Every structure is written in structure tokens, then in C-alpha cells.
Amino acid sequence: METTHTAPADPLVIAGREFGSRLVMGTGGAPSLHVLEEALLASGTELTTVAMRRVDPATKGSVLEVLDRHGIGVLPNTAGCFTSGEAVLTARLAREALGTPWVKLEVIADEHTLLPDPVELLDAAERLVADGFTVLPYTNDDPVLAQRLEQAGCAAVMPLGAPIGSGMGIRNPHNIELIVERAGVPVILDAGIGTASDAALAMELGCDAVLLATAVTRAQRPALMAAAMRHAVEAGRAARLAGRIPVRRLAQASSSFAGLAATGL
Ligand SMILES: CC(=O)[C@@H](O)[C@H](O)COP(=O)(O)O
After folding, report:
1. What positions does UniProt annotate as the active site of this protein (predicted)?
2. ipTM score of the complex?
3. Smallest Cα–Cα separation from 83: which of 115, 64, 49, 107?
């Protein structure tokens, strides 16, 4: 039941598919499969990326088995691809192996920054959309590129907060706000989250969801951090829906002085 202090039922909808959780998890960097499993459960995630170049779908005891066991949706990731051609091929292999047309499209420019290559990314997005994929591109925090990806038919746009694995948080909140204002598809803040307050900020800025991996998988206590991220995403979303007060340059007394004179106080 909805009350004044609970948000209305508020599922994330991507390409017509509903998710109760707005936290998308990545799987890279965990010290063991068991630790990863505990963290995924603590996060409450319903959708988790798997790098296709680092997983063998036929291997027993793989992360895919963990996801399957807990009914968590798989989002194949083209991580490690440097060209449009590589990414398209990887997505097609993933569709074949995992039976899903959904893909996290990652086409990176170099190994030092792991930043997206905008030219190759847009080309790959256009080709994959034309081939029937549901494309969720990892993109720069560039409002123009985000719009071009949406126009290309992507089901969401996923701007970075900061480079993958950097934990630097959201370096350009202004651009994230611009992307959110202009987007007609869900905006998922992807990469660079360092701690729970970064995830909350992403949601307060109006993002529809957060995708993160390193902050959890390389935390000293991954499951505890995963739980913190879950709460942060929920809190940030609630704050966004509640409508924050405007920022003021000068003080404004929180209680009015009107009426005090009448009582003689
Ligand atoms: C798991 C995944 O998809 C990553 O490539 C993603 O971009 C997350 O980045 P962080 O590891 O910085 O959270």
C-alpha cells in the first residue's frame, strides 16, 4: 500500500521489460564466485552484466550458473572490444550462446582509459539495432552522443560517471543532468562509482538506474557494500521523486518568526 512516506510502485522499464531493482551489477573483479554470489544477492539486482570475452558459457561453475540459480537476468557485455566489427561479432556470439538479444555495448578506445570510442560505438549501435538487438550502450558523458545513440534506436543510454574501475564518482554531474533532461529512454549511470553516495547522487540527478561492479567486487566486504549500494539507489530515487528544495545562497529560517510577537515571546 502506498503511504506518504513510501514511493509508489516504481519499476524500471527498459524495452518493455520491468525490473523491481534499479541497480544493475557487473561481475568482474570479485575474489571468488562465492563472494560474488553473496554480493549479488545482497544487492537485490535483477540484471547483471557478463563479459562475453571472459566467460565460457559451457563451463560448469561459471557466473552464468549463479545468475541462473537466483533468477537474475543476464546482460551480455562486449567488454574488451575495440572496434565496431569486434563488438558486433561478440554480440552475435552472445545471442547464440545465451539466447538473449540484449547486449551491453562496450567499444573502448584504449586500455589505459577504457573510455568509449564514440565513432566505433555509434557504428556498432546502428548495426546491432538493425540486426534486432536490444542495445544498451556504455557511452561518454556527452549529451550529443547520448542523443545520437537514442536516435539510432538504443533501448537505454549508459553514460559513465568516471572511467571504469576508477571509483572517482560522477565527474561531470552537469552533463549527466543534461543527458537525463533530453533522454526519451532510460539513463543508466555506468562506471566510476566509488561508494554509496555516488550511487545516490546518480539517482538524485535523475538517472533511472545505476550499473556498477568494482566498488562492490573490490570492496573489503563486498556483500556489505552491495547492500549499501542497494539502499543508496533506493534512497536517491526516493529523494528524486520527493523533489529536493532549491539551493539558496542565503539562509532561510526553517521556522517562521511570524506570530511570535503576538505571543510576547
Ligand atoms: C561490469 C561492467 O559492465 C563494467 O564494465 C562497468 O562499466 C562498471 O564499471 P565500474 O567497475 O567502474 O563500476
Report:
1. 104
2. 0.96
3. 107
Query: Cα-flanking dihedrals φ and ψ of residue 210, to 5°?
Result: -130, 135
- Where do the domains of the chain lie, and which CATH numbers do they carry? 12-245 (3.20.20.70)
3-state class (DSSP) for residue 124: helix
pTM attached to this predicted model: 0.93
Measured in Å, residue 193 CA sits from the centre of ligand 1 at: 9
User: Is residue 165 part of an annotated ligand binding site?
Assistant: yes
Q: What is the pLDDT of residues 125-172, one digit of tens each?
A: 999 999 999 999 999 999 999 999 999 999 999 999 999 999 999 999
Which amino acid is located at 169 in the chain?
A: G
Q: Does residue 94 have a known ligand-binding role?
A: no
Mutation choice for ligand 1 from 25, 36, 47, 49, CB with most ligand atoms inside 8 A: 49
